[in-house]
Amino acid sequence: MTEETQTSVLVVDDHPIMRYGVVAIIAARSDMRVVAQTGTASGAVELFREHRPDITLMDLRLPDRSGVEAIREIRSFAPWARLIVLTTYEGDEDIHQALEAGARGYLIKGMPHEALIEAIRKVKAGGRFVPAPVARALASRMPDGELSTREREVLELLVRGKSNREIAELLSIKEATVKSHVSVILMRLNVTDRTQAVITALQRGLAHL
């Protein structure tokens, strides 16, 4: 099979062992080839421009920017780009953000390597790849659970263990305003206290440590 007929793949993951493993799985297939690999979001954008791969495998957690931001940037100049998220995150918000940004597949790193090959083939053919566990997590996402930008900022600081006073100082807002935001966050996450809010935020991918 010639290079022209092989599916070209760009692999983006900041963990070298994981990245090399994925590259090896793809390299073992006669109908696929890895054209480039990187561990950063900026590298992903640069290498995509250079190689124009058929498929890009994108990790969500990268050292310089998130994978979701890289997906958005790539799609801004290449709306035809076919991207598959490859991540450890199974939270419904992570999935929602990635698919909304334009990803056409979502793979959890613990899945069998056959799932990776299936995802690449399916997305290359113009389809989507959202396996059952991912679809269930996405289906559990509450439609009224959307947080505003400011509420997300407050939630991130809650996860970091900041008090209302500290949050107010960091965001340059009144402490009473912080309390109001916290009340809304508890309501939207359907929890009763700050501890539950932090746990839920981490489980759903609304915030990361």
UniProtKB/TrEMBL annotation:
Post-translational modification 4-aspartylphosphate, affected residues: 59
Pfam families per the UniProt record, alphabetical: GerE, Response_reg
Domain HTH luxR-type: 140-205
Keyword vocabulary terms for this entry: DNA-binding, Phosphoprotein
UniProt-recorded Gene Ontology molecular function terms: DNA binding
A GO BP entry: regulation of DNA-templated transcription
Top-level taxon: Bacteria
Domain Response regulatory per the UniProt entry, residue ranges: 8-124
Listed SUPFAM superfamilies: C-terminal effector domain of the bipartite response regulators, CheY-like
Cited Gene3D superfamilies: 3.40.50.2300
PANTHER family reported in the protein's UniProt record: TWO-COMPONENT RESPONSE REGULATOR
Name of the protein in question: Response regulator transcription factor
Organism in which the protein naturally occurs: Silvibacterium dinghuense
